[in-house]
Amino acid sequence: MAQLPCDNDGACLRCKAKPPQEETLTCGTCGTPWHAACLSSPPETLASTLQWHCPDCSGEIDPLLPVSGGGSDLVAAIRAIEADESLTDADKAKKRQELLSGKSATDEDDDEEEGKKSAGGLDVDLLKALGENLNCSFCIQLPERPVTTPCGHNFCLKCFEKWIGQGKRTCAKCRSSIPPKMASNPRINSSLVSAIRLARVSKSAGAGTGKVFHFISNQDRPDKAFTTERAKKTGKANAASGRIYVTIPPDHFGPIPAENDPVRNQGVLVGESWEDRLECRQWGAHFPHVAGIAGQSNYGAQSVALSGGYEDDEDHGEWFLYTGSGGRDLSGNKRTNKDQSFDQKFEKSNEALRVSCKMGYPVRVVRSHKEKRSAYAPEAGVRYDGVYRIEKCWRKVGIQGSFKVCRYLFVRCDNEPAPWTSDEHGDRPRPLPNIPELKMATELFERKESPSWNFDEGEGCWKWMKPPPASLKAVNVLDPEERKTMKRAIKAAHSNSVNREVMEVIEKLKNKEEDKAESEEVEDASMEEKAESESEENCETTEPEEETPVVTEEAEQPRKRAKLDIDTVVPATMLESGMK
DNA sequence: GGGCCCGCAGGG
DNA sequence: CCCTGCGGGCCC
């Protein structure tokens, strides 16, 4: 039988009676009153009633651990490294990387050693060194099935063919002419494929940082959110997302660093804002375009959106109280019900937040206070407000009535100044209200103690010291067979002419590849000095059905083109082009 | 200004 | 496959 607290009027939700004061217990955590007689295990001593925690709050959080990281052994091992005082920070980082790459590089005979070496960080710089020169000018990402023009510029095969399909015969980057032979029969630059892959795999082995994630079919999407013909009404109400510009995986925790921002190479900065949730999604700050919590119940939560739409929320800028999702009746077509009509539970995304609380993961926060614009969200649109940690989570009866909601205390923990701390918004410092959970958090702050964050005295800020778990779905991990193909191609590439940048990479990689040679035909790719002009063209979208034979094809399965009829797409950015 | 309906995307 | 979700424009 479920145990229930008292409602707002003090009546026990189980026996319906209003218990006398001596039979009422107040939870030391959430402050909710309970009827002692209706508890399955009431406290036995008077002393224990003083420090009593209700069934909702005292319930042990399951020892949930990230599923892909290898479980508690791995975490224990990492903790051991962190605790080892004989190691410098750099040593620790190195050891963590070794640990993680050793886990992910499973049984790979002679490749194992190399895998660990490349995890050391050298290769991470290689791709970076190549810079944007490698990127496809259309989709601004590393090319998929790259083709290289005689002038030395690289494009995705798909993007290139679309370009050609529009009758263009000049390089989209430098306007040099494209030979008819290449236009009619573009060939994959397989040595470039290899170089990109190897660089990616090296990056992905770098435990948590520098991972690059490519959204499937991303290059087919337009710059902005778009609607299809099937969407009866116009505007973004029924829009699908536009292209994702950043290369973090969807389950990436914490800030979005520059290396995952191939477009601007600056990362997503605190205070950046976007027109709406769809645009915010394109920059990776918060992926769901309706839901407020991005997270997985067995893994953690990556981000939350504050819109001011929940009565129970309190936004104080540096900290805020957040209400979980659910508990509202959204059945039928009425999707705007703001009244709680049943209890929220720690499941799904609410559970994801609880995992992040327990593990101490950083949570990105975006604000978009539409209804009640506040000092903390003064502008229209959606703003990225940096990284918070969840100091505490609990359940309590919501202010609306007798239904329980999940609540979370978020506390700002990065050291970048938030917009509201500037003079412009001059609303800090302000007296903090006297609520128990905040008191606890501020005390922890003052004592510089936190369950899962460390206070960095040197920099004077809180830092999240635990390494993030490996990504759930990194699509950029190669299987052993692919890897061998790649090695062969690299050998072969040795005798072919490729971009100068690519040559450099291969040169460096070559030093590590001492095993047997095995020649292989490589598609031709020519090189020339590179020109500097910029193209403003976008990646036009038409439906290509080509499946050109390719030497080494990416293992990604093209995701079902979910009900998305590209031919009927009408993004604003495309109206000028020759779309039918 | 609120109700309503539409849509996509993601979790499970 | 089903369900849910701190969007968003339009219609009344």
UniProtKB/TrEMBL annotation:
Looking at the record, the residues that make up the PHD-type domain are 9-60
**Compartments in which it is found:** Nucleus
Q: Write out the ranges of the annotated region (Disordered).
A: 92-118, 509-565
- Keywords tagged on the record: Chromatin regulator, DNA-binding, Metal-binding, Nucleus, Transferase, Ubl conjugation pathway, Zinc, Zinc-finger
Where in this chain does the record put each YDG domain? 263-412
Could you tell me the gene encoding this protein? Answer: A07p039640.1_BraROA
Q: Which residues form the RING-type domain?
A: 136-175
Recorded hits in PROSITE patterns, A to Z, give: YDG, ZF_PHD_1, ZF_PHD_2, ZF_RING_2
Which InterPro entries does the entry link to?
PUA-like_sf, RING-HC_ORTHRUS_rpt1, SRA-YDG_sf, SRA_YDG, UHRF1/2-like, Zinc_finger_PHD-type_CS, Znf_C3HC4_RING-type, Znf_FYVE_PHD
Catalytic activity line of the entry: S-ubiquitinyl-[E2 ubiquitin-conjugating enzyme]-L-cysteine + [acceptor protein]-L-lysine = [E2 ubiquitin-conjugating enzyme]-L-cysteine + N(6)-ubiquitinyl-[acceptor protein]-L-lysine
Q: Name one Pfam family in it.
A: SAD_SRA
* Composition bias, Basic and acidic residues: 556-565
Q: Where is there biased composition of kind Acidic residues?
A: 516-526, 534-548
Q: What is its main location?
A: nucleus
Q: What is this protein called?
A: RING-type E3 ubiquitin transferase
Pathway membership: Protein modification; protein ubiquitination
